[in-house]
Amino acid sequence: MSIESLLRERFSRAIGLAFGSEFAGEPMVKAGDPKFADYQCNAAMALSRQLGRPPREVATEILRHVQLADVCEPAQIAGPGFINVRISTTWLARRLAELFTDSASKARGGVARAAQSATVVVDYAGPNIAKEMHVGHLRSSILGDAIARTLAFVGHRVVRQNHVGDFGTQFGMLIRHAKDLKLDTGEMPQISDLDSYYKQAAQRDKSDPQFAVEARQAVVALQSGDSEALRLWHWIRDESRRHCREIFEFLGITLSEADERGESFYADRLPLVVQRLSEALPMGGDGPYTGTSDIFHPQRQLDANGLNVDGTVEASEPQIVTKAFVAESQGALCVFLPGFVDKDKKPLPLIIRKGDGAYLYATTDLAALYFRIIEEKTTPDQTAPLDQNWHADRIIYTTDARQAQHFSMVFDTIRAAHWDINPVTKLPVVLQHAPFGSILGEDGKPFKTRSGESVKLRELLYEAVQRADAVVEKKNPELPIAARQLVARAVGIGAVKYADLRQDRITDYQFVWDRLLALDGNTGPYLQYTFARIRSIFRKAGEVPATAVTIMLETPQERDVARRILQFSDVVLAVLQDLKPHYLCTYLYDLCGSFSAFYESCPVLKAASPELRQSRLALCDLTAAVLKVGLSDLLGMELLEEM
RNA sequence: GCGCCCGUAGCUCAAUUGGAUAGAGCAUCCGCCUUCUAAGCGGAAUGUUCCGGGUUCGAAUCCCGGCGGGCGCACCA
Questions:
Q1: Residue A145, number of CB atoms within 10 A of its CB
Q2: Element (DSSP H or E) covering residue A600
Q3: How far, in Å, CA of A334 to CA of A353, rounded?
Q4: For the structural domain made of A457-634, what CATH number should be given?
Q5: CATH 1.10.730.10 in chain A, residues?
Q6: Strand order in the sheet with A76-78
Q7: How confident is the model at residue A266 (pLDDT cuts 50, 70, 90)?
Q8: Position A298 confidence tier, pLDDT thresholds 50, 70, 90
């Protein structure tokens, strides 16, 4: 059990004894400012209001009942009613020794498995076919992967999903454009060629209305199984998949082909979804909107005074949807939901079938949700992880913040249709959009190449490795070239990933090479360096670490490292609570800071006694174990023995 | 216009979700390599937390009103 939950339990019990169990909920316990305490319990202030008694009196009462003698020094009351807890050094040492001895637990950095394993779908990366992956895919891939890794590590059944954009409107443009190109589809294309076809097609689509119309028709043809369209589709898709695999492999993203279920996968389910949705939700709506089509956009014209040309006054109150319903509007089949209005304050639809009969991303997302939560997957020819039912308990999307409204509408639709109920547990599925900001250049504007194009991932990652190589060559010229190349790759890629993960995902972040490859501060290279230093000690030690030791925490630095190591599991829980890997980055950076201070002031190999040497080696080993789990298992970065 | 997100040191970012004297790194200044990787460590200096109200024991955090920036708002994803 983590320190935090142990203390929470103790305080909860004390509060129950003092004031009755109805007050004993989750008392607030948090790691405190080291100036005052290792941990503090702030429950007294909150309780004082409920009890109508002064907070310090409440705190005194809690202290009278709390049992902490085995864990910490006598707790102190401070300020308005903080209860400060200083963990006893002998207790810390004992806990650490236990962790060190239990090799299975040590390999997990002391992180326990979740009490119950849930099925969690993580939907991330989601590149488009026929386009080279670019910086726009970077955050989703990196964040989603870190979240998926962390969920899996604590023991959940994680279903990774790469929702590839391979069957939507944009593909129609490609088909239409291809007609004029006379492509040789017998030969494997290059992703760079496809990328330029895509750009040409997009350009024509924008400037040529006739082309645009035919492109939309091509989508319908594709979605209804036209063989010529499908042949081209396969041709493009194969190369696109190869390209994505290459990028994922280079970046260390744990998405395999088995995880790929793009728009096309749901194609034949789309009419079904629309039909089921029409059955699950009322048709035509409530109140004054019943039955008629074009209910929100009557073809009325207003004169300069805001009067209809027939003389009636346009309703000044916005029309409000009170309950979700399906209706046809302007030829398109739509879901209308409470709380969504467009810029004219008219109800905003979620379009599930276009006027021309084609489906778009909302329909696909709904189909995917139905598939992930409800659909039975017992067909024997399906491959893992499709070979068993998912019945997801939680579904997480890492896509950029601009899609927040889209997901909010899709989730509301699912809930209105009661499709969010897990068929096995009968509990509501947790639907989460984990939005993130943009990547900006040093000038604070969207990260683009000089010519204004989006930066290709392949080039960006190549540059990261090149730059890292130059740094390594400068810092460690003795390193043989072969070793240096491995280091450069790990450092370069690690720096890019860490730069993304270390910052709160909701904010935009600036991509500045010199900053993310910096050797000091909260960067990938610094953390990797700390790990490499530890490994170096063990190489020099020339002995296998003992399996059991007495931990001695006689200096403040040793105690600080010990305290930090034991906080790890609480941080991992917080990451999963908020889906914010930057908590983990901040923690690991602090751990490295504590370790470096220890490293400076406490000789390990030349410690004053063999016992102290063993103890310090154990501290090094435990720090390395936490770094390995945090950096490698959870964040997906490579670690180095030497750099 | 409506909605969502953001605004913290010169710069880039934290702040365990309402807790104590708001913390790091960079840049600036001072000190430390004949001892385990100095890609490091120790120290100094740096703040009207965009502004104004409110809520309360206590606000960067919550509420209201401004200002500034980003994004979204019918057949693209």
A1: 26
A2: helix A582-601
A3: 7
A4: 1.10.730.10
A5: 457-634
A6: A29-31, A39-41, A82-85, A76-78
A7: very high
A8: very low
CB atoms under 10 Å from CB of A553, counted, come to 19
> Distance in angstroms, CA of A243 to C1' of B48?
53
**Separation of alpha carbons A46 and A66, rounded Å:** 17
More confident residue, A635 or A2: A635
Cα A415 to the center of its chain, rounded Å:
23
Q: Which of A124-128, A185-189, A370-374, A481-485 has the lowest mean pLDDT?
A: A185-189
From the alpha carbon of A294, which nucleotide's C1' atom is closest?
A: B74
| CATH code given to domain A123-261 | 3.40.50.620
Does residue A218 contact residue A229 with C-beta atoms inside 8 Å? yes
- Chain B nucleotides near the protein (CB, 7 A): 1-6, 12-17, 19-21, 24-26, 35-42, 56-58, 70-77
Any strand B atom closer than 7 Å to A617 CB: no
**CA distance linking residue A81 with residue A51, whole number of Å:** 14
Judge if the beta carbon of A520 is closer than 7 A to nucleic acid strand B: yes
Q: Range(s) for CATH 3.30.1360.70 in chain A?
A: 3-87
d(CA A353, CA A329): 11
> Measured between alpha carbons, how far is A559 from A564 in angstroms, rounded to an integer?
9
Residue A292 pLDDT exceeds 60? no
A574 Cβ within 7 A of any nucleic strand B atom: yes
Q: How far is the CA of A600 from the C1' of B42 (A)?
A: 10
Residue A416 has pLDDT above 50, yes or no: yes
Closest nucleotide to A603 by C1' from CA:
B36
Please provide residue A431's backbone torsions phi and psi, each rounded to the nearest 5 degrees: -105, 120
Q: Indicate where chain A has its CATH 3.40.50.620 domain(s).
A: 123-261
Amino acid residing at A188: M
Q: Which sign does the torsion angle of CA A193, A199, A203, A205 carry? A: positive
Q: Find out whether A112 and A573 touch, Cβ atoms under 8 Å.
A: no
For position A542, what pLDDT does the model report?
Answer: 83
Q: Which 3 state secondary structure label does DSSP give A121? A: strand
Question: What is the dotted CATH code of the domain comprising A3-87?
Answer: 3.30.1360.70
